[in-house]
Amino acid sequence: xxxxxxxxxxxxxxxxxxxxxxxxxxxxxxxxxxxxxxxxxxxxxxxxxxxxxxxxxxxxxxxxxxxxxxxxxxxxxxxxxxxxxxxxxxxxxxxxxxxxxxxxxxxxxxxxxxxxxxxxxxxxxxxxxxxxxxxxxxxxxxxxxxxxxxxxxxxxxxxxxxxxxxxxxxxxxxxxxxxxxxxxxxxxxxxxxxxxxxxxxxxxxxxxxxxxxxxxxxxxxxx
Length: 223
Ligand code: NAI
Prior knowledge:
It contains nine helices and ten strands. By secondary structure, the chain is of the alpha/beta class. It has three domains: 8-77, Orthogonal Bundle (Arc Repressor Mutant, subunit A), CATH 1.10.10.10; 84-192, 3-Layer(aba) Sandwich (Rossmann fold); 195-223. A seven-stranded mixed sheet has the order 6-7-5-4-8-9-10. Helix 1 crosses helix 4 (67-77). The protein is globular. It starts with 7 loop residues before the first helix and ends with a helix. The mean pLDDT is 91. The structure holds 1,4-dihydronicotinamide adenine dinucleotide.
């Protein structure tokens, strides 16, 4: 659909545009200039124009962007005009938390199955979806459309389970396990690592504290 490859930095910003535009729509805002959008999002107006130009711009000089149109088009680019069937593999703390989060459905991600090896979890209902024994995974995947598998199992089991999922036909894995999965190239893997995000925060906290200490030391030395 879009001829030029789009950088991952631009793609990474699209969900944020989408969220802001969604909020504008909820507040009945019909159109917005890149300047106003930039003030709201704290991204430069030229960055916004450049980003959206990748997709044909959507804006008109002197008019700004039509919020609903832009929201719909970015939604299409993100593939949110489609419905996805998702399964969760591993119904422990994290798997259950994901299953309990209702908002994914609003975005078109429907949880159709939850699987676990622990027999005590089999039959448990989470927001209307029953936890099934992990041995049923293969037949479920072969018999039902599964677009995305969320992987929330212990690290040591992840390489084998991910390879099985790929072999059975899963083509996208939402990987929460702190391990790099090595899978055939047709399988998309999106890693979500909260700890890495925390480490970035800790780096920035440290850098800020050090800068603050330097500033205080310079002040007390009368520099
Ligand atoms: P947990 O121990 O509560 O749950 C893991 C579940 O996986 C258990 O119910 C277990 O029976 C099940 N399981 C084990 N092998 C399985 C298999 N082959 N097939 C199906 N189910 C299987 O652990 P928790 O806290 O939910 O964490 C799960 C994973 O997510 C861990 O790898 C953990 O490191 C990771 N994690 C990642 C985070 C992130 O930010 N990406 C945050 C928290 C946890």
